[in-house]
Amino acid sequence: MTLRPDIPLFDLFGETGGFPDTVHCERIWDRARLHDWVISPHRHAEITQVFFMRQGHAEVRIDGQDATLDDGQFLLIPVQIVHGFEFQKLSEGLVLSFPAPVLAGMRPASPGLAARLSRPVVGTASDTLVTLSDQLVAAFARPGPYRANLLVALAQALLAEICALVPAEEAAAPGGAKMMALDALIAAHLAEGWRAGDYAAALSITPGHLTRLCHAATGLSASRYIEGKVMTEASRMLAFTQVPVAEVGYRLGFSDPAYFSRRFRALRGQSPSDYRGRFVG
């Protein structure tokens, strides 16, 4: 795999312009064939995507983990998740892209809903999901004065159906809204070296309360949970970019490269250089 200077951040893959519509629908064929059926690792800052494989196969890399997408399956990719594909030639299906306001507008809001939409999921598409995707594609292609309203309604119905298909044990999210808010803060302040007390202050809770929330949700202290999130981002940068190891540490708030390497080894079981070596070939 060829490493890049940085992880590409797109609205739609390969495009640097603004998001083109209320939602976006396209065939896998339309974009994958333009890239010889290989979509290199990238991520989206404000877009959640759903891939639906009607016929064909794809090898998928999701934040460094391997998965497959086969006939009749769907894949949910939340914001900021690094993903790439190697499609079997002539694979056919859909790529549905939903900007953040579509998800934020889902009502009634709940921690369970947010949890189900915050992590990647591969599953078998229900008849309802297939029907909703077909209706969404049809509405996307049809002009009209209430087109945007219809697209948002169908998109939210489709996402709700995906939530219903996620097993409860995969979606459990103790701490709910506060944990989601913490994750958003961590993503926003990765480079600033914030400690647990800084995040607690931003959430208007005490450090002890934050630790109790993190422990209930993950079994980890707040400090260890935050460090784990930082090292996940470090893993992404090491796997998918050419950024030097020391610079990865600097970008994530570590002023001492040696300390960054020690902490990475403590959490990942190998040095940053050895970890990167797993993805170079």
TrEMBL record:
- Keywords assigned by UniProt? DNA-binding, Transcription, Transcription regulation
Q: Which PROSITE patterns match?
A: HTH_ARAC_FAMILY_2
Query: InterPro entries annotated for this entry?
Result: AraC_XylS_family_regulators (IPR050204), Cupin_2 (IPR013096), Cupin_HpaA-like_N (IPR047264), Homeodomain-like_sf (IPR009057), HTH_AraC (IPR018060), RmlC-like_jellyroll (IPR014710), RmlC_Cupin_sf (IPR011051), Tscrpt_reg_AraC-type_HTH (IPR020449)
The HTH araC/xylS-type domain sits at 180-278
Please name the SUPFAM superfamilies in this protein's record. Answer: Homeodomain-like, RmlC-like cupins
According to UniProt, the name of this protein is: Helix-turn-helix domain-containing protein
